[in-house]
């Protein structure tokens, strides 16, 4: 190859690096793949507190509500009574509720004790080494992902718009998202942020 | 590829690279917008701040490296990092660092909860208590895509540009590694 051609390719590689590297360098500590609304959510195979393996794929055809939860975070605990009530309300509507605990320091026994005390009746899955949290870009607890019957992400974010950890908000984002999907519509809003606790990663 | 095509692509890449380098990660606090003024309480004490007041505080700190920490008493890792932040604050109190601690505990608890807590923990820095906890308004005021996860520490350079968005607990060493090159 002639020197001129080599120089041209070196120049292009340099420009590519100069363009792409600064953009990626801006990402925050744990910003992995942030899910996009309308895209399929990655599958998981995670054990619940009794050792039973659950996967997202096994619930294809159902609306799935995934809650990144924490037994220590007051905002997550504050949302629990409302999420549990919502799971019971939709028990016969083909809506599956699953909690996911990705915190490094929380054991299965810790979660069992909390779930029993708090009446958290739907399965809670242990995400060992926060691998699934990384795969879906989860950062906060509580952070909710609502997946439609086709396995596509339909809603992502806050449970509701509460301004305090135990005070119910006046916009019930997750409840509205489930109602919209059951009605054959797209949730609006499809994304909302919430204060909460960071996921304690390994 | 024709030589002219390579040259055109080269120019496009050069333009994109220049834009990426110039704009950096994010703009600093919004300028030109009407913002509330906000009073800074004495060290170790707490006072309310609105989201726009927070934006005004950030705008006023331009010229200094600014560390903005979101925390709450109910957040165990936030409480755990307080001694590290206290050391950082004391270490940099004489130089060009502005330290803004923003509490999510609610203004209704300033007298009954927050002030007693700050005294008990001998927190040396002033604490701004968010009166308006609308996360979208706060994100806009601090010009950062904050996720809402606490604790969160944002570091701005002297030009007011966001250079680091750190979620989760931070140590004195980790914070100094980010801040010192900016001084």
Task: Briefly characterize the structure.
The complex is a heterodimer of chains A (202) and B (183). Chain A is 32% helix and 20% strand.
- Major pleated sheet of chain A: 8 strands, mixed
Second-tier CATH architecture of chain B: 3-Layer(aba) Sandwich
What's the order of the H and E elements of chain B? HEHEHEHEHEEEH
Strand order of the largest sheet of chain A: 2-1-5-4-3-7-8-9
Uncertain residue ranges of chain B = 1-5, 12-35
Tell me what the CATH architecture of chain A is.
3-Layer(aba) Sandwich
Q: Over all CA atoms, what is the radius of gyration of chain A?
A: 20 Å
Strand order in space, largest sheet of chain B = 1-4-3-2-6-7
Question: Can you say what the CATH homologous superfamily of chain B is?
Answer: Glutaredoxin
Give me the count of strands of chain A.
10
**How many separate domains of chain A?**
1
Structure overview:
The complex is a heterodimer of chains A (202) and B (183). Chain A is α/β, with parallel strands linked by helices and 202 residues long. Chain A has one domain (33-198): Glutaredoxin, CATH 3.40.30. Chain A has helices spanning 3-25, 74-89, 108-118, 131-135, 173-182, and strands at 45-48, 53-55, 63-68, 95-101, 124-126, 140-141, 143-147, 153-157, 191-192, 196-198. Chain A has an eight-stranded mixed β-sheet with strand order 2-1-5-4-3-7-8-9, with helices on one face. In chain A, strands 6-10 form a two-stranded antiparallel sheet. Chain A is globular and about 40 Å long. Chain A starts with a helix and ends with a strand. Chain B is an alpha/beta fold and 183 residues long. Chain B has a single domain (28-182), classed as Glutaredoxin. Helix content of chain B is 40%, strand content 19%. Chain B has helices at 3-23, 51-60, 76-91, 110-120, 135-142, 172-179, and strands spanning 46-49, 65-71, 97-103, 127-130, 149-150, 152-156, 162-167. In chain B, strand 3 (97-103), helix 4 (110-120) and strand 4 form a beta-alpha-beta unit. In chain B, helix 2 (51-60) packs parallel to helix 5. The N and C termini of chain B lie far apart (47 Å). Residues 1-5 and 12-35 of chain B have low confidence and may be disordered. The chains are: A alpha/beta (202), B alpha/beta (183). The interface between A and B is medium-sized, with 33 and 34 residues.
């Amino acid at each position: 190859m002639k020197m001129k051609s080599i120089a041209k390719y070196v120049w292009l590689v340099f420009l590519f690096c100069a363009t792409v590297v600064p953009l990626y360098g801006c990402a925050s500590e744990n910003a992995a793949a942030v899910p996009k609304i309308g895209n399929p959510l990655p599958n998981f195979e995670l054990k619940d507190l009794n050792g039973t393996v659950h996967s997202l794929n096994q619930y294809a055809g159902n609306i799935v509500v995934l809650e990144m939860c924490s037994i220590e975070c007051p905002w997550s605990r504050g949302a629990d009574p409302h999420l549990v009530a919502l799971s019971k309300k939709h028990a016969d509507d083909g809506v599956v509720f699953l909690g996911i605990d990705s915190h490094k320091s929380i054991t299965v026994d810790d979660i069992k004790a909390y779930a029993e005390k708090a009446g958290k009746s739907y399965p809670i899955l242990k995400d060992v080494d926060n691998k699934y949290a990384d795969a879906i870009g989860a950062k906060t607890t509580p952070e909710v992902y609502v997946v439609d019957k086709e396995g596509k992400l339909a809603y992502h974010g806050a449970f509701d718009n509460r301004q305090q950890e135990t005070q119910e908000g006046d916009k019930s984002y997750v409840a509205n998202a489930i109602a919209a999907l059951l009605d054959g519509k797209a949730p609006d809003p499809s994304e909302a942020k919430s204060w909460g606790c960071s996921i304690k990663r390994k | 590829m024709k030589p002219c095509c390579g040259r055109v692509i080269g120019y496009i890449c050069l333009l994109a690279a220049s834009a990426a380098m110039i704009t950096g990660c994010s703009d600093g606090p919004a300028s030109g917008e009407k913002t509330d003024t906000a009073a800074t309480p004495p060290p170790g004490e707490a006072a309310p701040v609105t989201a726009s007041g927070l934006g005004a505080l950030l705008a006023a700190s331009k010229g200094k490296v600014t560390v903005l920490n979101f925390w709450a008493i109910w957040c165990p890792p936030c409480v755990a990092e307080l001694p590290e932040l206290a050391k950082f604050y004391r270490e940099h109190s004489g130089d060009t660092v502005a330290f803004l601690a923003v509490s999510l505990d609610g203004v209704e608890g300033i007298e009954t909860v927050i002030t007693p807590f700050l005294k008990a923990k001998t927190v040396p820095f002033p604490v701004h208590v968010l009166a308006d906890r609308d996360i979208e308004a706060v994100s806009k005021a601090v010009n950062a895509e904050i996720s809402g996860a606490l604790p969160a520490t944002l570091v701005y350079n002297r030009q007011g540009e966001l250079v680091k968005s750190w979620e989760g607990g931070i140590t004195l060493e980790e914070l100094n590694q980010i801040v010192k090159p900016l001084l």
